[in-house]
Each structure stands twice: as structure tokens, then as C-alpha cells.
Amino acid sequence: MSVSLQNVNFHYPDTPKNQVLSIDKWEVYPGEKLFIYGPSGCGKSTLLNLISGILLPSSGSINVLGESLEAMTDHQRNRFRANNIGYIFQNFNLIPYLNSVENIRLAHYFSSKNKPSNTTALVKKIHNLLEALNMPIESWHKPINLLSIGQQQRVAIARALINNPKLLIADEPTSSLDPYNKENFMRLLIELCTTQKITVLFVSHDQQLNQYFTRSAALPSINKIVNKQ
User: What are the ABC transporter domain coordinates in residue numbering (predicted)?
Assistant: First the structure.
């Protein structure tokens, strides 16, 4: 099982009576591409932060890739996330003054696995990813803030994939994209994850994206996950 949640409840420490999430049982199988949708404020980002170990549940257990997150220290969770989980953020969270290669190398720096034996091997791996994403060579060494949104999204995908993650998490990454860029983003993402056999958790309020995934799950405002085939 890639992800398993059992009797998970979450509330923020300063508002113990305000339950953000309540999930009795929920599982994601290896290789699944799961689309999670729901209205704003229903807890979608909180769910992703729990699964990635950024947050811990108030009660219950979360098992990711065979490991119990609540049994780890903060340092162990950070290392586990760097080694096993790729994350594509809503606003990409790229460092604007670094170029494409530097942004991707920085993500690789925090991982302790699959380290190429030398810098040349790492740069080649980065170049191969950028080529697979149809990133123009002339843009590789430009600062991120000089790239188009479409180019930035490709860098964000490459950064999320550089450490060969077993699980990819995407939090509303298409919310600010026009229809053309949105379609290209989804096509590239799903194609690469299928090739590399990566489990995908993709959160959005845009139900039109459901067509790209093998399964969907609604996270309604009542904070109960309802699986839908």
C-alpha cells in the first residue's frame, strides 16, 4: 500500500473543537493516479500535508510507503519526504533568482538516496528530465523569474521527479493556468508518472481534470472522504 490512513482526525492545537479532517479508513494502491477534489476550505491541502508528514494527525495513524509517519522524529520525516515524495506546489515555489538547473539541483541536495557519483552525472540527469519535458535548451540557465509560466511548470515537474520519488503530490498546480497550459501540464505529468510507475495524489477543485486519473475521491465540507470510481 502506498498510503494508508486509519482513524485519522486533525485539528489545529489552538482550535481543538474545530475538526479539520476526520477519516475512518482510506488507502491508495501503488501506481494509482488519484484525483482528490472538493470546495475551498474543506481540508485538501491539510490532507496532503498530513500524508507528506509536514503535519501530524491529532489522532490515528498514517502509513506511507510502508512507514509510520507518527513513529518518526521531525528530522526523520523530513529526510523521508526528501527521499520518497515529490511535491508540486500551487505556485511552484521555485527560487526566482536561480535558474532551472540550480532549482532542480537544490531539491536533489536534500535527498540522501540515488546520489550520482559526480556532478556531471547529476547534471546529465537534470538535462534528460528537461529534455523529456520539452524545455528549450536556451532557457535552462535563465533565472526562473524570466521564464514563462509554462516553462516554470516544467521546471517544477522536473524538480519533483529528480529524486525518483515513489509518491508524487500535487496541490492545485493548475489553478492559475490557462486551458492550453493546463492541458499540456496534465499530459506531461501523467505521461512521466506512468513511465516511472509513480503513485500520484493530485488535489484540485477543477473536476474537469478527473479525466486524467484512474480514480477520484471527493473531500466534501463534511470532512469525510468518499471514494468514487
Answer: 3-225
Which residues have CB under 8 Å from 191's CB, separation 6+?
Answer: none
pLDDT of 89-143, one tens digit each? 888 999 999 999 999 999 998 887 655 557 888 999 999 999 988 899 999 999 9
Does residue 61 contact residue 5 with C-beta atoms inside 8 Å? yes
What's 143's DSSP letter? B
Other C-beta atoms within 10 Å of 206: how many? 12
Residue 147 lies in a domain: yes
For position 171, which CATH number holds? 3.40.50.300
Q: Checking DSSP bridges between strand 21-28 and strand 59-64, what pairing results, if any?
A: unpaired
Is residue 49 in some structural domain? yes
Predicted model pTM: 0.89
Does 208 fall in a domain?
Answer: yes
Instruction: Answer whether residue 21 is part of any domain.
Output: no
Q: Which helix (H) or strand (E) holds 77?
A: helix 74-84
Report the number of distinct structural domains present in the chain.
Answer: 1
> Under a CB-based contact definition with an 8 Å cutoff, are residues 190 and 212 in contact?
yes
- Are 181 and 153 a contacting pair, CB within 8 Å? yes
Instruction: Give the cell for residue 82.
Output: 526528501
